[in-house]
Every structure is written in structure tokens, then in C-alpha cells.
Amino acid sequence: MRNALNIFLLLAFANGLIAQTTEEINTDNFGSTVDIETFFLSQENNNTFLSNRPSSDNHLFAIPNKVNITPQTHGTWLNTNNKSIWRLRIVSERAYSLNFGFTDFVMPGDGALYLYSEDNQQRFGPFTPHDNASHEELWTPIIEGSSTILELR
What we know:
Helix content is 5%, strand content 35%. The chain is built from 1 helix and 11 strands; from the N terminus they run ββαβββββββββ. The protein has one helix at 46-52, and strands at 7-12, 38-40, 62-66, 76-80, 83-91, 97-102, 113-116, 123-127, 138-139, 143-144, 147-152. The strands form 2 sheets. Strands 2, 4, 5, 7, 8 and 11 form a 6-stranded mixed beta sheet that branches. Strands 1, 3, 6, 9 and 10 form a 5-stranded antiparallel beta sheet that branches.
């Protein structure tokens, strides 16, 4: 489960939220999210982005922020009940929403990736080996707000 995941983050400046039903993510079993590492993205100016967006490209809704984040270099590992859990909070102040593009996504057989909002009202996952594709990419739904927690189990 500790395979490196190169994350290509997209700051999503859209007001909509993709509706998706997922299994219940019980974060209470693994401790508080208060004590996990936070990765801060550069602060973007939404008004400047929206006013400088080409009028011919109405589908452009995000500012890409390419980063190289792996469970070995960032985040917080928790070990409980014979399970290892990795978490990382991603914050981009003033962002309307966040979505993630994993450009080197190969989930091992027993692994699962979850994404959820700070208030745990928006949850996506599990992304499992069934989500592995030959191009080794995973693009997630949009999570409304300026922060998201990534969790590997």
C-alpha cells in the first residue's frame, strides 16, 4: 500500500459538485484528522483566473498544480488494529473546490484510496485495484471546498 503515488492536483474553481454514491467511510476508527500533515498549495486568485480564462474555453475550470507527493515523502502514517493508514490534508485557501489527477496510479491488491472533505460530508472511494487502468491514471470527482483529506488503507 505504500506504493508511490505521483499526484497532479487540480484546483477546481467550479461551484458544482459531482454527485456520486460511495460506501460509508468510517474515519472515526482511525483517529482524529487534526494531527495529520497538511500540504498547502499556492493560493490562487479566483477572480483573476475567471476573468483571464479564454471565452472559447468554457470547460476550463481549474488551475493545475503539478506536485510530486508520495506516502514516503508526505502525510501521516497511523498503525492501528494491524492496519496501516496514510493520510494527507491538501489545502488551497480560497479554492471553491478540489479534484485530483493521479498520474501514476497502481493500487496494490489490498489497498484502497479514499477522499473526503474536512466535515466528512463529501466522501469518495474506495478506489481499489478495480480502478487500475493501463494508462495508470486516476481522476477523481470534485470535492467542494478548499481542503480535502486523502487516505490510503
